[in-house]
Amino acid sequence: MVDILLVLLGFFMLTWTFSRYETELDVQVPTAHEGKEVRRSPGEVIINVKADGSIIMNRHTFSPEELTTTLTHIATLYPDQAIILRGDTTAPYNYIIQVLDICRSANIWNVAFATSQASAPPTLPVQSPE
User: What does DSSP assign to residue 89?
Assistant: First the structure.
């Protein structure tokens, strides 16, 4: 049991260290005009979903089965584990839903979506008079 805890402790230390660099991946998150900026907390897990559907966590590519196993182990030890989901703007929606389903099956409910701040407020389309 102690060896499993040491492995997971090492995993979280690496996750915390590398989570600051996860934004360097070639994932372009959608922009948001409203919302609150959440303060980052140590130990949160960042999952990136690229446009081709590949799932990257801690700079490693995971299959859906591997991600399920990993998140299940994490949720067993840390029931309130926070997940930040960074989905590429061009990724089909079913890839994002797949990761959400994996989080749900691993019993992880604390999931946030990463967005970037929009540079200008949204404008409504103007209808031309007919």
Answer: T
In the chain, the percentage of residues whose pLDDT exceeds 70 is 67
Neighbours of 91 (CB within 10 A): 21
Whole-angstrom Cα distance, residue 125 to residue 54? Answer: 35
28, 88 Cβ separation under 8 angstroms = yes
All domains of the chain in start order, with CATH: 2-117 (3.30.420.270)
For position 24, what pLDDT does the model report? 46
Is residue 102 a contact partner of residue 66, using CB atoms and an 8 Å limit?
Answer: no
In this structure, which amino acid lies at residue 88? D
pLDDT digit string, tens, across residues 32-73: 666 666 666 667 899 999 999 999 998 899 999 999 999 999
Q: Which two tokens stand for residue 115?
A: 């967005």
Q: Are 112 and 38 in contact (CB under 8 A)?
A: yes
| CB-CB contact of 59 with 50 (8 Å) | no
